């Protein structure tokens, strides 16, 4: 029986790719480096801001010094523009409200830095009660390290066997595997289906409402 669903944020609940790409490209231009298409950023995101910027830098320029320079440009710009183009994926708000109505605990576990994670969740889902909303925090290893999942399990007082982890990337599938919780891959996000299927998640879904179907199957709730 599952009583907690943990959601990844970027590429799972929210389509944030354009605002991330625009902010990274601003940082690149400000520091004299070439930029990339929005589509290219689908392959750069997933492991936090520093790794995103490292991947965006030209080969041979991926130094700690350059990453720090880009971070100094990226953060203030993203803070001002992080909701310009971002939006929940179709069907996500209805899904969250549906799950909440049935008293299914929900949480967010993201590699986006913590302040932005909290800001975006509060902005786009103000009426949803999450037991925990966690982004990447100083001193805590990012996903796929299971620390963030363990923090959520502790806060929710739920065991691994009663938890479903939902995400759109190999990082998410590996996080679920490392955490010992069941994984659900979503195909509407940033990465292709094959990347997720390589980790043999318990579930794969093409539409948010299918997650409600999984809850119906596992929890025996009437939606």
Sum this structure up briefly.
The chain is of the alpha/beta class. The protein contains 9 helices and 8 strands.
Which key phrases capture this entry?
2 domains; 6-stranded parallel β-sheet; alpha/beta; globular; Rossmann fold; DNA polymerase, domain 1; 9 helices; 223 residues; two-stranded antiparallel ribbon
Q: For the CA atoms, what is the radius of gyration? A: 17 Å
> Could you list the spans in which at least 5 consecutive residues all have pLDDT below 50?
none
The coarse overall form would be: globular
The CATH architecture term of the largest domain is: 3-Layer(aba) Sandwich
For the record, the count of structural domains works out to: 2
Total helices: the number is: 9
What would you call the structural class? alpha/beta
Strand percentage lies at 15-25%
Major sheet details: 6 strands, parallel
Please give the CATH class of the largest domain: Alpha Beta
By oligomeric state, this entry counts as: single chain
The arrangement of helices and strands along the chain is EEHHHEHEHEHEHEHEH
Strand order of the largest sheet: 5-4-1-6-7-8
Mean pLDDT: 95
């Amino acid at each position: 029986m599952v009583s907690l669903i943990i959601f990844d944020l970027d590429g799972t609940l929210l389509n944030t790719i354009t605002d991330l790409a625009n902010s990274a490209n601003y940082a690149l231009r400000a520091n004299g480096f070439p930029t990339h298409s929005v589509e290219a950023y689908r392959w750069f995101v997933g492991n936090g801001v520093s790794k995103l910027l490292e991947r965006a830098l030209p080969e041979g320029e991926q130094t700690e010094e350059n990453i720090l320079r880009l971070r100094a440009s990226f953060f203030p710009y993203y803070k001002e523009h992080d909701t310009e183009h971002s939006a929940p994926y179709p069907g996500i708000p209805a899904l969250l409200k549906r799950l909440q109505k049935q008293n299914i605990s929900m949480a967010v576990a993201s590699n986006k830095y913590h302040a932005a994670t909290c800001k975006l969740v509060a902005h786009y889902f103000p009426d949803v009660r999450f037991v925990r909303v966690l982004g990447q925090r100083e001193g805590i290893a990012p996903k796929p390290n299971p620390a963030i999942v363990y923090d959520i399990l502790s806060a929710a007082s739920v065991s691994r066997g009663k938890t479903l982890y939902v995400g759109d990337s190999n990082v998410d599938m590996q996080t679920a595997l490392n955490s010992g919780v069941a994984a659900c891959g979503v195909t509407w996000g940033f990465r292709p289906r094959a990347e997720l299927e390589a980790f043999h998640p318990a579930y794969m879904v093409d539409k948010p409402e299918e997650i409600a179907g999984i809850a119906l199957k596992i929890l025996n709730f009437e939606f």
